[in-house]
Amino acid sequence: MASPLTHIAVGYSLFRLARPRFPELTGAWKTVVLFCGALGVAVFVDADAVLGVLHHDLANYHNQQSHSLCAAAVVGIGVGLLGRALTGSGLGRWLTLGLAGTLSHVLIDFLTIGRGVQLFWPVTDARFASPLPLFYGLRWSEGVWSTSHLVTLANEIPIVAALLWQVHRKATRRAVKEVAKG
Fold this sequence. Notes:
Elements: H1 4-18, H2 28-44, H3 48-54, H4 58-61, H5 69-87, H6 91-110, H7 148-181
């Protein structure tokens, strides 16, 4: 699985890209809800790791059914309903944010070297992984302080930096256009 760094960066990117699509969300509280929602859905899929840590059996709890298209749909609907209830904003935009965040997580883990994801659960428990992985991924079985995590960071930091740079450029261009309009 990819490191939390990558999932958090994608969540932050979703926030930056989604913010203009929620113009009615004014005030700090509603912006915080959007920020937490975007980051939350990008990392929520890994909540199953908590059970793995508590049971000292990460392999049997983490990266299971939560990393599937079905789970993404359930989370997306939940985020849609919760976002609408908290902010009064459109259900569709919150649903899209929930799906984008959850699916980004599943896609990143699909593109990571490892055992793959249960993409089509509950239809099948089979795991699917990219034949051309992009991410080296974490090796938790080697321990928290494994030097292999340095390889993970060396692999992910340039990808995360490129993503954040592109999102920053897009947001800056959008802001300049808004100022020019008046």
